[in-house]
Amino acid sequence: MHASILLGLLPFAAAQVTQVVEAPPPAPVRLNTTKSGVAPTLPTPFNGVDTLQGAIMMPLPPQPGYVGLNGTAPAQTNLPAATYRATLPSSMFNNLVGTTVRGYVEGIGTPAGVRFTVQLSGLPEQARYGPFNWHIHTLPVPANGNCTATTSHFDPTNRGELIMCEAARPETCQAGDLAGKHGGKIATPGNFSTSFVEPYLSTQPGSAYFFGGLSFVLHATNTTRLTCANFVQVNSTSNGTSPSGTGPVVPVFTGAAEKIGAGAGALVVALAAALF
Ligand SMILES: *[C@@H]1O[C@H](CO)[C@@H](O)[C@H](O)[C@H]1NC(C)=O
Ligand SMILES: *[C@@H]1O[C@H](CO)[C@@H](O)[C@H](O)[C@H]1NC(C)=O
Ligand SMILES: *[C@@H]1O[C@H](CO)[C@@H](O)[C@H](O)[C@H]1NC(C)=O
Ligand SMILES: *[C@@H]1O[C@H](CO)[C@@H](O)[C@H](O)[C@H]1NC(C)=O
Ligand SMILES: *[C@@H]1O[C@H](CO)[C@@H](O)[C@H](O)[C@H]1NC(C)=O
Ligand SMILES: *[C@@H]1O[C@H](CO)[C@@H](O)[C@H](O)[C@H]1NC(C)=O
Ligand SMILES: *[C@@H]1O[C@H](CO)[C@@H](O)[C@H](O)[C@H]1NC(C)=O
Ligand SMILES: [Cu+2]
């Protein structure tokens, strides 16, 4: 399991999507509570952690497998043309925002990475709750729909949260930081859609970059998790095209089960951030 410090407030770099506007970084704060988020170990004594521009300044040694902030993900090529779709549930994890966000995020393997389509409707009021961050997280949503249990951003290169993603260097970002790499937080009112090819995720089960079975999470601007859903394999793309080479559909959470198994052996400790 690639635990990193949980953080939903990643600011973003370059905007490829015109609807996206840059939000000011949050002021530095000291987080003293242990609530949600994961870290490899908790310092003793725990005196809190500082944040800078929404990123937790991690005073801990890196985890095994850490490749450094400059570690890069290899491009994922010649992927199985399987389709994985996260369909948002009919009731939201946080239902206090006046709307229900519906829609899906779908990824299909291509020779040059995963082609994603994002279709969201019913976004909450931007002025009060936006802009909205969106990521793939480390663990699946459990059956009770608890988005908090998805823990941190999917981060197979163990980049961590110290430095925000530079969209111009996507290979250095957390693999699951879709917003950071693909247009930033969603700042459109109502509906949002986008599509892109993501070279640093995979439809190959067993790959460190495999996102099947993992979760898509949508956050309000204060990092609260609004809604979430797991990527399950489907037989056809949203436009009805049968992807070639999909083969038999695997049981719904096969990929996730492997990741949960691996994660269970890792020492993860809830850290900081009453935010989550
Ligand atoms: C967090 O802990 C530090 C060190 O004990 C303390 O100085 C600071 O006031 C605390 N902050 C809050 C918000 O409680
Ligand atoms: C790591 O990346 C940062 C930001 O791009 C750069 O300033 C720094 O020199 C790099 N460090 C190494 C060791 O490459
Ligand atoms: C938003 O998406 C919903 C669901 O797809 C659709 O019914 C509605 O017409 C869309 N609204 C606009 C303004 O496009
Ligand atoms: C949701 O998940 C979080 C993190 O695992 C946990 O602390 C919390 O108790 C869970 N809540 C429910 C209702 O299961
Ligand atoms: C995929 O196709 C198989 C066999 O036709 C069917 O049993 C299964 O329900 C389908 N799964 C989905 C998600 O459509
Ligand atoms: C359907 O989607 C697939 C994969 O996203 C794409 O290759 C194909 O061109 C689309 N077909 C139509 C008719 O839109
Ligand atoms: C964040 O915003 C949501 C939606 O308004 C709210 O339910 C939640 O309590 C807020 N969390 C914090 C820590 O302010
Ligand atoms: Cu997230």
- The total tally of domains equals 1
Mean pLDDT: 72
N-to-C SSE string, H for helix and E for strand = EEEEEEEHEHEEEHE
Given as residue ranges, the uncertain stretches (5+ residues, pLDDT < 50) are 1-25, 33-41, 245-276
Strand order in the largest sheet: 8-10-11-5-6-7-9
- What's the number of helices? 3
- Write the CATH homologous superfamily: Superoxide dismutase, copper/zinc binding domain
How helical, in percent, are the residues? Answer: under 10%
The major pleated sheet works out as: 7 strands, antiparallel
**The CATH topology:** Immunoglobulin-like
Strand % is: 15-25%
Taking all Cα atoms into account, the compactness measure Rg is: 17 Å
Q: What compounds are bound to the protein?
A: 2-acetamido-2-deoxy-beta-D-glucopyranose, copper (II) ion
Outline: globular
The top level CATH class name = Mainly Beta
What is the CATH architecture descriptor? Sandwich
Total strands: the figure is: 12
Structural class by helix and strand composition: mainly beta
Family: Belongs to the Cu-Zn superoxide dismutase family.
Protein name: superoxide dismutase
Enzyme class: oxidoreductase
EC number: 1.15.1.1
